Amino acid sequence: AKQTGKNKLITFQAMPLLPRFTSQIHMETDLRKAITENQLCLYYQPRLELSTGHISCLEALVRWNHPLYGMIAPADFIPIAEESGLIIQLGEWVLREACLQKARWLAQDKLDYQVAVNISPCQFQDESFADKAIRIIEQTGIHPSYLEFEITESSIMQNMDKTIAVLDKLCAKGISISIDDFGIGYSSLNYLKEFPIHCLKIDRSFVKNIQSNSNDLAITNAIIHLGHALNIQVVAEGVEDVGQLDILKETTCTTIQGFLLSPPVSAYEIEQTFHMYDNRPVMIS
Ligand code: C2E
Ligand code: MG
Ligand code: MG
Ligand code: MG
């Protein structure tokens, strides 16, 4: 599998022999079609609570199954979706599909976990974002407290007053908010005391070398203690091996997500793998 910069596309088959998009317009045109013609799908990656061994949440991650080019990773099309404005429609599709999947699991009495949905900064800044999101959730019939929205520091730093209003509206409905990729944005920490935030997700660039780099370990430690002190949950992202896990346990990290437990997989696969853990703890390491 291929590696492009910081995003390892290890869940995808590299297909260098197939033709690819010839221009950005080409991709935009195809992406517009993809949203309406059901070429997008959601994969799910579990989050594990270390203290109990229980899964607490499934993060929904979008993939594009292109009829000619096969599976395309979000890093390859989310930026184009953002530039073209298609991210609004795409984001609505993702939220609706995540809610519908949660509704299916509820109906089958399976996988009783929250579902986390990534919200891009463009989406978050859209005037009608909160109202549209709440409407979509209500249309699917699930309770908003099943949802967590993952937003990034760049989403919230633009207009603090507006952000507070949006987050308060979402929280009033019971939606949880997490800060994704925490630590790599240009953040003041001030917002943590002002905003209703439930969870910080430590960016995986800190977790990656936690065993060998004492600065990464120090930063990870600091974020975890910041979370404890502010009563905000902290999730370590990108946990790939038992060495990292052991160190994270020592730092009193409560929750992890990463390939060690599971890569993002289809709804079907997550059911096959994790349904049996609904009532008992997951053992890793
Ligand atoms: P993210 O929200 O930070 O999601 C985590 C990414 O890290 C996922 O990549 C996941 O596959 C990958 N990952 C998880 N565990 C590990 C690990 O142990 N090691 C390594 N190396 N990687 C790991 P993915 O699915 O390719 O998504 C990349 C990014 O694309 C996401 O980062 C998110 O920012 C964006 N994205 C994905 N789905 C959506 C979506 O539905 N809407 C929006 N707006 N953005 C999305
Ligand atoms: Mg995320
Ligand atoms: Mg992240
Ligand atoms: Mg990210």
UniProtKB/TrEMBL annotation:
Domain of life (superkingdom): Bacteria
Q: Which residues form the EAL domain?
A: 24-278
Can you name this protein?
Diguanylate cyclase (GGDEF)-like protein
